[in-house]
Structure formats: C-alpha cells, structure tokens
Amino acid sequence: MQLDHATIVTADLDTARRFFVDVAGLEDGARPPFSVDGYWLYANGRAVIHLIDATVPAHVGRTAPRIDHIAFRLESAAEWQALLQRLRATQTPYQQAEVPQMGPQEAQMQVFVALAPGVVVEFVTAVQRAARV
After folding, report:
1. pLDDT, tens digit, for every residue of 40-83?
2. Separation CA 10–CA 127 (nearest Å)
3. Residue 56 or residue 19, greater confidence
4. Three-state SS string across the chain, please?
5. Can you identify the CATH homologous superfamily of domain 6-129?
6. Confidence of residue 23 (pLDDT cuts 50, 70, 90)
C-alpha cells in the first residue's frame, strides 16, 4: 500500500498552487471538470496533491477531521539542495528538525512549512544527503 494523494481544501487556491509548484517542485496537470475549482498537482506522472476551492465558509467552533501534515521524501542530495534553494528564493519560512538514528533506520533531516492554518508540509531526507540549512 502507498499513499495515493492528499486533498487540501483552501480558500486561497493560487497561493497553495504556487507553493506546491514553485517551492515543492510539483507540476500542474490534467484535472477532471468538477463543479468546483481546483488543481491537480503531479510528481513523477501521478497526481499527488489535489487542491479544492473552499466553497463553504468555515463555521466558528466547528470540529472537523483534518490532516496534520503531508510529507514528501527526497531521495537525492540534489533534490534536497534544490528544495532549499527554492525555499530561500521564495523567502518561504520553514523550520528544520533532525530525527536521530533509531536502530537500522538512518538519521533523517526534516523541513516543515506551514502552508496555511492547519496545513503543514514536511520534506524529509536522510541526514547524509542533507546539508545544514
């Protein structure tokens, strides 16, 4: 089993799209003609992020299920460095963390970006591929 896609409902489609295309490196792609606006963003030929226009205003005090964050694994040092360069070039705020080695799992480097209230995007790679930011 593998993650197919994550859907983010947002009132600011263009800002979310710019982040995922300009910073995360995804590509705009084909999307069925749904009755609500949105984008499908692709990685390696697969639509992995679905952005949907928030057509219903939020209700104060309304509890709803949410996804804490979505994570993208970057496998090469070149991918990691390109991501860091895009974050800097777009002046996108982020936080960095390191997950220590645990048993056979190698140490990991993480970068977290708060895309919008309640939506966090994580990028992760092995420490050996990452340079300190």
Report:
1. 999 999 899 989 887 765 555 544 445 567 888 888 899 899 99
2. 33
3. 19
4. CCCCCEEEEECCHHHHHHHHHHHCCCEEECCCCCCCCEEEEEECCEEEEEEEECCCCCCCCCCCCCCCEEEEECCCHHHHHHHHHHHHHCCCCCEEEEECCECCECCEEEEEEEEECCEEEEEEEEHHHCCCC
5. 2,3-Dihydroxybiphenyl 1,2-Dioxygenase, domain 1 (3.10.180.10)
6. very high
